[in-house]
Write a structure and sequence with these properties.
The protein has 14 helices and 15 strands. It is an alpha/beta fold. About 35% of the residues lie in helices and about 15% in strands. The protein has an 8-stranded mixed beta sheet with strand order 3-2-1-4-5-6-14-15. The chain is globular, with a radius of gyration of 21 Å. Helix 5 crosses helix 6.
Length: about 375
């Protein structure tokens, strides 16, 4: 039996319109929790269908199905998965709080649209705990990391432009070599899957302490090496697949592989750039889609899909709601200012407030003024 109380907040869930994006920001289970807390949940018509959640599943737990205009125009807090695209810029408005993945350090037009609209924009990917963990980025990093070797293996097939390498090899034929740049959440999960595919796996990282952790977590089955330019150049020559898994929270990804360095690689080798949301960690990367995922530069195949987890929306949506729901509940129960004031991790997620950029790395990326959050509020 539902506990109906006067709604304290109107929470909208937008349907994703980015090409081939099937995730949704809230499951029916999450909607039920918010309704039971006395809040009003507005779901855009068809928002959950790509993740296997029909409109009736939301209605059954007390949410309302509304038009795109009513969801964007009527919500106090709007939940999305991906950043607004150009068609949605006109819906950004003062008085609305947006909670989604933003990655605006690599997106000048969106940054300007957010600033000009007066909206409050809070990014999943920059919510950061005191121990530097990124709790809302972690599940999608896990998904993307596990997808990376799978999609790289597909790209290595001759029919898709690759060398024609089977990662696991066969008896008498050596396995393919997978080099992973970055040993964080993406790198660890990519290594787990690449090992499962019986590849020869190398992980490069800048932290010796992290490499010690990976040595234990991966049971000594990977080769670990310090990440620096010379080491990267050395491993490129023998790599069949290179997975870019580096992250600087909220900032543009460092370019670890230059165009000149592609000449060190064998034709048909594959680069998988998981950092493409943050501008990519290969100089020759540009964002692609699930419809047209790969391109070639100097004989090297690039896989740079900007929303990799969108390929597995049922898994990804459930994983995302698991971690975002407690923060959504805090916003709903305490108000946006109250939730931010009571949680330093959530405060780090705030990128834009009332026309001011409150995340320093974003301001630096675009040469704009940075305003500390306390001053903006």
């Amino acid at each position: 039996m539902f506990l109906y109380r006067p709604a304290a907040m109107r929470i909208g869930v937008a349907r994703e319109i980015k090409k081939r994006e099937y995730r949704v920001a809230l499951t029916p289970a999450g909607a039920l929790e918010l309704v039971r807390r006395g809040h009003e949940v507005l779901i855009e018509n068809g928002a959950g269908e790509g993740s296997g959640f029909a409109d009736v599943a939301y209605e059954a737990v007390g949410a309302r199905i509304e038009s795109v205009e009513d969801v964007w125009g009527g919500a106090d807090l709007l939940l999305k998965v991906k950043e607004p695209i150009a068609e949605e810029y006109g819906r950004l408005r003062e008085g609305l709080t947006l909670f989604t993945y933003l990655h605006i350090a690599a997106d000048g037009p969106l940054t300007r649209a957010l600033v000009d609209s007066g909206i409050t924009a809070i990014a999943y990917e920059t919510v950061e705990k005191a121990d530097r963990q990124l709790p809302l980025l972690a599940p999608m990093s896990e998904v993307a990391g596990r997808l990376a070797p799978q999609m790289g293996a597909w790209s290595l097939e001759k029919a898709h432009g690759g060398r024609g390498i089977l990662l696991g090899g066969v008896p008498g034929v050596p396995p393919g070599r997978v080099v992973i740049l970055g040993g964080g959440v993406v790198g660890l999960n990519a290594a787990i899957i690449a090992l499962g595919m019986q590849a020869d796996v190398w992980v490069l990282d800048k932290s010796v302490e992290r490499m010690r952790e990976l040595e234990i977590a991966l049971d000594g089955r990977v080769t670990l090496a310090m990440s620096n330019r010379l080491q990267i150049e050395e491993v490129l020559a023998e790599a069949d697949m290179v997975i870019g898994a580096v992250l600087v929270p909220g900032a543009i990804a460092p370019k670890l592989v230059t165009r000149e360095m592609l000449g060190l690689m064998r034709p048909g080798s594959v680069l998988v750039d998981v950092a493409i949301d943050q501008g990519g960690c290969f100089e020759t990367s540009h964002a692609t889609t699930h419809d047209d995922p790969v391109f070639e530069v100097d004989g090297i195949v690039h896989y740079c899909v900007a929303n990799m987890p969108g390929a597995v929306p049922v898994t990804a949506t459930k994983g995302l709601t698991n971690v975002t729901l407690p923060y959504v509940e805090a916003f709903a129960d305490k108000g946006v200012a109250g939730a931010i004031g009571g949680d330093p991790a959530l405060a780090k997620g705030v990128n834009v407030v009332a026309g001011k950029i409150t995340y320093e790395a974003v301001a630096q990326a675009h040469g704009l003024d940075y305003v500390p959050l306390a001053d903006a509020l």
